[in-house]
Amino acid sequence: MTHYDPNGFRPGELWWVETSGKRYGPFAPARMIDFVSEGRIAADTLVCRSGEDWREAQHVPFLAAALAEREPSIEDEHETFEAPQIAIVVWAKIASFVENDFLAALVALGPLVQLEHGMWIVRTTKPMSEVRTRLSSVLTTSDRMFLSAVTDRLVGWRNLGPTTEARLRDLFRAVASLSPAND
């Protein structure tokens, strides 16, 4: 099996994947190779390096090599690309007048549960760096924010109320059901 040298890529090189009309990313080249190995990227899957045109994976040298090494399985016909989902605790102390913009950016990330004023858990397919960038873009220098990824095995709560606790259980069940793809 060929081993791909991550030093063979441009520093900070990022890739995107398009399938079923949806775009996912950005991903490092090594992660793209993982997607090929998992059967989530096929020869005709559209991919794009940041700043370049979309093309089929088979026309990208490092992906073509990974595709050539991969042994197809019967399950491949039924697999589709799904971005990994994570749950993120978001704490924000907003001192400026951007609270509505912040909430809109937060809601756009995916399903969320508000734990109390200024604290949420959001389930998203976006990587932590993109979540930080999206939420930070609406904050001012007087606002504060803290983010942390969590899993169903690394979080606990008490006395948040039956409705909030039920919503949290549902949110974490959804993340746990995707744990094989969870990074």
How would you describe this structure in keywords?
single chain; 183 residues; alpha+beta; Dna Ligase, domain 1; Alpha-Beta Plaits; four-stranded antiparallel β-sheet; disordered C terminus
What does this structure look like?
With 183 residues, the chain is an alpha+beta fold. It folds into two domains: 6-78, GYF domain (Dna Ligase, domain 1, 2-Layer Sandwich), CATH 3.30.1490; 86-181, Alpha-Beta Plaits (2-Layer Sandwich), CATH 3.30.70. It has helices at 29-37, 61-69, 99-109, 128-136, 162-176, and strands spanning 15-19, 22-27, 46-49, 55-56, 86-93, 112-116, 119-124, 144-150. Strands 2-1-3-4 form a four-stranded antiparallel β-sheet. A four-stranded antiparallel β-sheet has the order 6-7-5-8, sandwiched between helices. A hairpin with a 2-residue loop joins strand 6 and strand 7. Helix 1 (29-37) packs parallel to helix 2 and helix 3 packs antiparallel against helix 4.
